[in-house]
Amino acid sequence: MENLLNIKHFSLFNAFSCIDILQAREKLISTEAERNLIIYMIVVLIVICSLVILFFVVYQKRKNQLLLDKIKQQQKFDEELVKTQQEIQEETLKHIGRELHDNIGQLLAISTMQMKAVAKVVSEDVKTKIVNASDNLSESLVAVRALSKSLNSDVMNTLNFEVIVKNEIERLNKTGLITAHLTEKGIIVPLDNKKDSIILFRILQEFFSNTLKYANAEQLSVILDYHTDSINIEVKDNGDGFDLIKAEKGSGLINMEKRAELINATFNLKSIPNDGTVLSITYPFRET
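Below the sequence we write its predicted structure tokens.
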């Protein structure tokens, strides 16, 4: 009887043990499934985050590229606009230069010859006045021809840059409105790119014009400093000067800056009230 009870207890123990093992196995399987599910979710989350980051990077890169393209298009448009304005202005100046030389120049020349002819037949007391008037006409003729040359780009294309600047300095001195000086440093290197040399000269002309009109200057100095691969130009007056921050940019200053950009030249303008204005330009030599 006792053996039978032992057998029953052993059977029950084995049954409970099997149940415990099965429950432990089910729990282990459940834990492993949860772990796999968590790993799967983490992997999916990483993939989603990677895709979001990739999309953001591609979108931002595309956006930046579009902005760069827009800036380049705007720069190209501005350059073309400046070129067009430059060409129109050059044609206008060329036409004015030709008119000055061909029409007004001829009229002055004829008037000079007529005055000289009259001087031969008039009395001595009138002759002096006529000779003075004839001399004034001759000087006017020289001034008009010099101005026509500085306006006509076809004429400037036949001259070196330093010769054009020198002629302009002489013309300024002849006006009697200002005393101008030209200094050349280094070994002179001819500017083979005639279009660029004309644009450089137009920048200087704009500065000269502003000095005469607004600066009340007595002295004007121009320095041409030649290097092997560039030329540094410094123009300075001893005029009234102005506050660059407060002053509004007029078309003249804007045109100078745009022209400098057009030929890849650095442009720097400094001015102090009651201490004059200084323009510095560095032009890297470019092939035609």
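The beta strands are 179-185, 219-226, 230-237, 266-271, 277-284.
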